[in-house]
Amino acid sequence: MSKVVLYSQSDCPPCEFAKHYLSDKGISYTIKDIKKDKNARNELIHKYQSFSTPTFVINDDLVITGFDLEKINEALSIES
User: What is the CATH code for 4-75?
Assistant: First the structure.
């Protein structure tokens, strides 16, 4: 099973949609809220070179910025 980290923030409708989508598909994931956690924000920017949410990090190396359904489904082997 893939390790999924979702970088998110409050008041982000695409982030909420991403959480619901992963939950509906039975994918376990860890949320890192960049507004509540300065380390998560720095990690998102410096380690993954992303400046927006939602950002998905799958297995510590695949970064998907934004809710790109096709890329997410492919990376997590989800049938559409």
Answer: 3.40.30.10
